[in-house]
Amino acid sequence: MSAVKRLSMELDGWQAAWKQLEAFLDRLDGVADQDAPYVQTVCALLPVFNVIERARRRAVGIALAPALASSPRGEGLPAVSVGSLVGTQNRLPGVEELEFAVGTIGTDSDGKLTGEAVLSSTVTLFAFRDEKHGGEVAVRVPTYDFGPLAASGAVSDAIDAGLFTTDQRKDAAESGVAELGTWTGLRTARRAQLKTTSETVSLGSVLDGLSVSSLSSAFDAVASGAAARQGECLADRSVLLQAKATVAEQGAAPELTDALQRAADSLQASATDYGAVATALQPPRTVIASVSGLASLKTTLRRADSPGIPGQLSNELTTLDIEAGKGMEEAVAARLAYPDGPLRMLRTLEWSLRFHWVFRQRWFDARNRATLAPLLRQVLKPFCDSLKRVLAGQSTGIPLVGPVLLVKDTPTQATALSVTPTVDLALVQAGHVAHVGGDRPTLALVLGWEVKGADKRLRIAPLNVSIATDAKLPGVAGMVRSGAPVDGSAVSISTQELLDGHAAAGPQADGVVQELIALGAKLNLLLGQGGGAIGLVPPAVAAPYPGQTFKLLPPVEVGATRLFLDGQPVASTSGSSKPVQVARPGELLLVRGADDEGTWWQGVAQVDTVDIRTGAAARADDEVTTTPTPLCCGDDEEVVVITLRDLQLPKALVRDVTLRRDFKGFGGPSLATGVMLPIELDPGTANITVQDGGVTKTVLRDPELRAATTVLKSWLGVPT
């Protein structure tokens, strides 16, 4: 079996391996999407209950401590320790209780259940750097809503004091039906354990204990307390309005959104009353010298503490407590449903991915080193060797013995050469270069051979034959005639010809030069300038303006047929002894820039022609080329116009657009799968970043990779 065939089969295996992992990730994303409305609701309502508890403290002096901070998947939250999950008896039940309910229950040395909740630490497996995920998106498991867990650990007695006790778990395992505790029930039980002390009194009770004969300093605590509660009420009002917006997006019942609005209005009224008290108690505090004035102030403060019945929550907050409780119960029950609630499924998939990833990563690494990389080197080495020989003016190395001629006229872009039937093609392999003579000479990149009846054919990359039409030129434009020799004879190509992109012998021989340039550019695209992870270094083909990056006038639209340079490069930096253009026909160049959303892309452009034209002349071609000339090009102003054969970009580039040759190439795994794999799977594929407004952003190379895999598959004879 040929190396090309083995590599093709290996690519199939790699694509299947990645698709399996991708299906796993898609399944995880799907379950996360199912859980999203419920986790949004839970994380939006927990702050609401914190508000209610603060109102309870203002009214009666005691309340549960705030729940743990939470956000969907812990986004934006710092890492926490297991210790921060402990000691919850005086705290509002939070998202940690849901984790205890779906987490592993601990066992002792005899295998007896202990009631401990065992949680795994959060681990970052990898980060995406592809078009689908928009760049650097880290995959962390498990994604706790209280934030990443710094280290694995157990929380003592958390199971039996929570939503899914040991006995309930046993019953569920035996019957398949689970009866879970309720979030409201857990909160009520914790409230019942709160004890009042002499210090747990409302602010109004403190003021009630004072009289006009009290020292002025005795009112200090009331003044500062009222000011603090005014700010607290206003902040809590904002919390309720934000929660209203969030739960409304999740389709919350109108009763809940209405209760949130009414409670927010009630808090505004309380803030006004607290503000009035705080203002009245500012020096010189004349109000405390009047019995009636002090009595009115006490009434205002009692109303601020308890807008309804003294010592109780307001009707608005009581209603909110009921309606928010219903919403929380529904969301918690949905997430914890046994056995396939989305939170349960999500954790199961995350824990599975964590272990599956380790073995898949090892497979990718071992398979790449043992099989993929050696095969890529074996298959691509003849391409590099042939290019090196041609550049050195040596025989191309194709093993054709005796006179071999074309037996059919062959047009440009043909993918086969019919040759002398008696020739032995057994030793010809992909990557050999054939010199095709005649009046329109060129080089043909051979990809294999085939026999069809009496017809022997060299399978080739699309043939590049000069299409120059000057009547004085020999031969037929765009065609190699029957009888032209096909061999491995040496060609002499100067550095100046490579810089020009044209043959010194005349336009009829441009195919030789331009095919050589195209082959070098494609190898750079695959392997990178100077080589890369695959271990092959493509021969360097002389190029004009070495090492330079050219600014392009934006925008560069999807499928653009023309590019416009922003200014003209200095001729003295071209590396040539005479004026040359920035690019050559058939050459591949990189196009990089940012789209209108600030995402950076890098694609590949294939050059057709390069001209220096006036703005007026360029605009005259607008209707024909479909890519309009930028408005900034004045009629008499000269602009470099690059006409393209192809440009693949998913989004229009609107700023900081550049044309460049700094190819980095790709590692074998990304070439094999056709995916910008996480760097943990393919460290050989460079992660390119740019500074954009002080922020480091990843350049999405997916369009460039698609161009590279298209080249590789075409060379292997695989459909693209």
Short description:
This protein has 720 residues and is of the alpha+beta class. Helix content is 40%, strand content 16%.
Question: In words, what does this structure look like?
Answer:
This protein is of the alpha+beta class and 720 residues long. It is 40% helix and 16% strand. The chain is built from 16 helices and 20 strands. Helix 1 packs antiparallel against helix 6, helix 1 (3-60) packs antiparallel against helix 10 and helix 7 crosses helix 9.
On the 0 to 100 scale, the average pLDDT is: 93
Radius of gyration: 37 Å
Number of helices: 16
- Major β-sheet, in short? 8 strands, mixed
The portion of residues assigned to helices is 40-55%
**Rough shape?**
elongated
Count of β-strands: 20
Strand content: 15-25%
| Number of individual domains | 4
Distance between the termini: 22 Å
In the predicted model, the low-confidence regions spanning at least 5 consecutive residues are none
Which class of secondary structure composition applies to the elements?
alpha+beta
Which helices and strands appear, and what pairs or packs with what?
Layout: H1 3-60, H2 95-102, E1 104-107, E2 113-119, E3 123-130, E4 135-141, E5 153-155, H3 166-175, H4 183-192, H5 203-208, H6 220-249, H7 254-280, H8 291-305, H9 315-336, H10 342-391, E6 410-411, E7 416-419, E8 433-436, E9 442-452, E10 455-460, E11 479-480, E12 486-487, H11 495-500, H12 510-527, E13 550-551, E14 562-564, E15 588-594, E16 600-614, H13 615-620, H14 622-625, E17 638-647, E18 655-660, H15 668-673, E19 689-692, E20 695-700, H16 702-716
Parallel strand pairs: 16-20
Antiparallel strand pairs: 1-2, 2-5, 3-4, 6-11, 7-10, 8-9, 8-12, 9-10, 13-18, 14-17, 15-16, 15-18, 16-17, 19-20
Helix pairs in contact: 1-6, 1-9, 1-10, 6-7, 7-8, 7-9, 10-12
